Amino acid sequence: MNLSGKTALVTGAAKRVGREIAMALARRGANVVVHYNTSAADARRVVAQIEALGVEAMAVRADQSKAREVRDAVQKAAKAFGGIDVLVNCAAVYQKTPWTTVTEQDWDFHLNANLKGPFLFAREVSRHMRRGKIVNFADWAVWRPYRHYVPYLVSKAGVVCLTKALAKELAPHIQVNAVAPGPVLLPPDFSEAEKRAVRNATLVKRLGSPADAVGAVLFLLENGDFMTGHVLVVDGGRLLAGE
Q1: What is the pLDDT of residues 58-88, one digit of tens each?
Q2: Is residue 243's pLDDT more than 70?
Q3: Chain mean pLDDT for the chain
Q4: Summary count for the chain: helices (H), strands (E)
Q5: Is 229 left (phi over 0), alpha (psi -120 to 50) or beta?
């Protein structure tokens, strides 16, 4: 897919990896819909930065666990741009939930944001796609779960199945793939010791960066025209390191 002139909707595009993806798509000439939930000021800044590159952008707000809000946001974007060609489901939450204290609210919080949200956005965006591509975000750890994050890990495992199921449902005109990153952007509250442990647990003995996730997304969009239902692991060998 040549991204120039296309319209891409990126969820969670006001901050972190989502922002980097939105900016990368804009540099490729795509018009970008910047989705946010609570980060309105950040979203406005991203829109201004994208417009400075000479392409169009708009911000849309939605709690992605709410079907009506997602539908309204997608309809607003599709009306403004005449359709949507690309969806990148990047928005997610990640919180530690030790098994001895995990609650129903923890479960709902992660499943609603990380699995229900991508489902709702894919459902609504696909209705405005004649041909297009969807990229979801999973996690390397769905194949090797670690402790204290059960709701998060289950939600991301669901994204893998969602990706494969949607690839069948939306074929042949819409391709659906996923990126499963490893440590490309650690939580800001990680200590130096925690960062060092994560780095040493990779085969390449270093942390990744948002650019690694962005590169994977661009590959699937621009060069993955014969790929659908695939999960691209970008983890510095973390998945293999413990074997």
Answers
A1: 999 999 999 999 999 999 999 999 999 999 9
A2: no
A3: 96
A4: 9, 7
A5: left
For residue 34 the two structure tokens come to 């910047």
Q: Residue 185 has which token pair?
A: 């952007």
Read off the pLDDT of residues 154-176 as tens digits, 9 standing for 90 and up.
999 999 999 999 999 999 999 99
b/e 192-215 (16+ beta carbons within 10 angstroms → b): eeeeeebbebbeeeebbebebbbe
Token digits for 31? 């018009």
- Looking at domain 7-241, its CATH architecture is 3-Layer(aba) Sandwich (3.40)
**Catalytic residue flag (residue 146):** no
- DSSP-assigned states of every residue in 68-112: HHHHHHHHHHHHHHTS--EEEE-------B-TTT--HHHHHHHHI
In the chain, what are the domain boundaries? 7-241
The yes-or-no verdict on residue 190 having pLDDT over 90 is no
Residue ranges with strand state E in the chain: 7-10, 31-36, 57-61, 86-89, 132-137, 174-181, 231-234
What CA–CA distances, in Å, run from 128 to 10, 12, 75, 78, 210? 15, 20, 8, 7, 29
User: How confident is the model over 90-112, as pLDDT tens digits?
Assistant: 999 999 999 999 999 999 999 99
| Confidence (pTM) | 0.96
> Which residue among the candidates 36, 94, 149, 152 is catalytic per the annotation?
152
Contact 62, 112 (CB under 8 A): no
